[in-house]
Amino acid sequence: MKVENKPLYTVYEVMAILDCSLSKAYKVIQEMNAELKQRGYYIVAGKVNSQFFREKFKLSEVEVNTMIDIEVVKEKVKEIRSKSNANK
To answer: What one-character-per-residue DSSP string does the chain give?
Structure first.
């Protein structure tokens, strides 16, 4: 399954697209959402408008879909959560 036609990308999808850490993905989303909020848009914490994200990184939907697979993202989420639970 690909991320086609998704209105918002989650932090895990941003992490997979940018091949970055979870904390960096949150920071990118936070910065983009601050810009959107300043422009008068409603935002959702931990998610970013997919069209705005693609425009900022100059990526097409096709490019993003070749970069990310939802199943891979789900596996990364499980891995991160299991590490987080192990540290508690």
So the answer is: ---TT-SEEEHHHHHHHHT--HHHHHHHHHHHHHHHHHTT----TTEEEHHHHHHHTT--HHHHHHH--HHHHHHHHHHHHHHHHHT-
